[in-house]
Design goal:
Largest sheet: 7 strands, mixed
Number of strands: 17
Family: Belongs to the IFI44 family.
Helix content: 25-40%
Number of domains: 2
Oligomer: single chain
Strand order of the largest sheet: 14-12-13-11-15-16-17
Number of helices: 12
Domain TLDc: 2-162
CATH superfamily of the largest domain: P-loop containing nucleotide triphosphate hydrolases
InterPro entries: GTP-bd (IPR006073), P-loop_NTPase (IPR027417), TLDc_dom (IPR006571)
Pfam family, one: TLD
Shape: elongated
CATH topology of the largest domain: Rossmann fold
Strand content: 15-25%
Protein name: TLDc domain-containing protein
Length: 449
């Protein structure tokens, strides 16, 4: 299954959100992925509260409509005084979108079985990638300004519009953002030692959907300890996993030239569908320590015990000591039920193997405009807190097991606040691994099958 990503650039999203003030757009329907189909549109968009329909044509127009009321397929015309149509030409520099309010006393949309129907503009017309344009019905507009008289669509998306409320008076988690905190975290991590004498490093497995930020997290942590933004693991936003090998990454920067006492293990990304992405058999083999570094994944054929490279003789230092599920905060609500079920299956298997788990929420800056403005707003953001609670509930973990971070993606220089979040995440992983080691005798040396 393709990765569901917004077509809007950050600049375009800011232009649209300027109409609302502080608001967050959460993508819930994308026609090129979910189909130019009225039934699919309603399946994704009914009972979602305020929504924004955004269409694109090859004349460069980005246009659509906002409604503040639910789609519910009542068959009625709905009056909505807050509704409006909007448009802007991406080739023009005017930052203000063309905006048209509904006519006095007129309905704003028809809540029927069609695609988004605003009277003057009907999207997904005849279950196709076109619109029907009829200015004067509900809304009156200049078709040249609205869509350039080009009714053929390149894409149609629907976003849930979530208000970004003012910052909370008190943070829901406390954190120090000063240079001393950053220095202290680095020193604590570097000096950390497992309680088991036969183990030198904690092995942390990163598991998540394609594009969630697993490889970027390793690159970001590595950058913190190197002192500059670096890239070692391949990253990107392809529809299928860029990580096709199992990789174990040590991080330089520890005491006396030794590596930092944590190994981050990167896997193939999870994908929706059969024989796609990381499967549970390979996951099990990795956690048990049977899978060697640079093992080439084949979703249709998990690693077998008789296969070359299968590690039959395993010690505690070869096993995974903490499983960390990586979630894209800005796209969590788009995860299909089948993907949540895959997460649940992996969690169940990790529990059976006695391995503790964490959840890493990446891209928090893309999930809330207030956090985009200032990363120190993170723990004052009610949107981020609400998403964390949803993640914890859906994945069946406690809130304390959910850690928000921002990876380095387009930055050229390190940022101390980003570093502090990353270092907090690494320290949490080490402490969770300590709990795993507590289950073994301190003189654990024997081989484990």
């Amino acid at each position: 299954m393709s990765v569901v990503t917004s077509r809007l650039t950050r600049g375009q999203e800011r232009r649209i959100c300027s109409i609302f003030g502080h608001a967050r757009l959460s993508l819930i329907y994308k026609a090129s992925i979910h189909g130019y189909n009225n039934a699919n549109f309603h399946n994704k968009c009914n009972q979602q509260g305020p929504t924004l329909t955004v269409a694109y044509n090859n004349s460069g127009f980005i246009f659509g409509a906002y409604i503040s009321k639910d789609y519910a397929q009542t068959g009625q015309n709905i009056v909505d005084e807050k509704a409006f149509l909007f448009s802007f030409d991406e080739k023009e520099q005017n930052p203000e979108p063309y905006r048209v309010a509904s006519q006095n006393g007129q309905p704003a949309f028809t809540d029927g079985d069609t695609g988004p129907n605003f009277g003057s503009l009907i999207f997904l017309h005849n279950n196709a990638d076109t619109i029907h344009s009829n200015p004067g019905n509900f809304f009156n507009f200049d078709p040249i300004k609205m869509h350039g008289n080009n009714l053929q669509l390149l894409e149609c998306e629907v976003y849930r519009v979530e208000e970004c409320s003012a910052l909370l008076a008190k943070p829901w988690r406390t954190i120090q953002w000063n240079p001393e905190e950053r220095k202290g975290l680095m020193e604590t991590i570097i000096k950390w030692k497992p309680v088991i004498s036969s183990v030198n490093q904690a092995r942390v497995l990163l598991v998540g959907q394609v594009g969630a930020g697993k490889s970027s997290f390793f690159n970001s942590v590595c950058s913190v300890f190197k002192g500059y933004v670096s890239t070692q693991a391949n990253t990107g936003t392809a529809g299928t996993s860029l990580t096709t090998q199992y990789r174990t990454y040590s991080i330089s920067g520890g005491c006396n030239g030794n590596p930092v006492p944590v190994v981050l293990c990167d896997t193939m990304g999870m994908e929706d569908g059969l024989n796609a992405g990381l499967n549970i058999d390979d996951f099990t083999g990795i956690v048990k320590g049977n899978v060697p570094d640079r093992y080439q994944f084949n979703p249709a054929m998990p690693l077998q015990e008789e296969a070359p490279g299968f590690r039959k003789s395993v010690t505690l230092k070869d096993k995974i000591h903490c499983v960390t599920f990586v979630i894209d905060t800005s796209k969590f609500k788009l995860l299909p039920d089948s993907m949540i079920e895959k997460f649940s299956a992996l969690r169940k298997k990790a529990n059976q193997l006695g391995v503790p788990q964490l959840v890493l929420m990446t891209k928090v800056d893309e999930a809330c405009p207030l956090v985009t403005e200032d990363l120190k707003n993170l723990y004052y953001s009610s949107n981020i807190e609400r998403t964390m609670r949803e993640v914890a509930t859906q994945l069946g973990v406690s809130m304390t097991a959910v850690i928000p971070v921002k990876n380095y993606s387009q930055e050229l220089d390190l940022d101390p606040h980003t570093d502090i979040l990353l270092l907090n995440a690494v320290l949490k992983m080490l402490r969770v691994a300590e709990g795993y080691f507590d289950n073994f005798p301190q003189d654990e040396e024997e081989k484990i099958s």
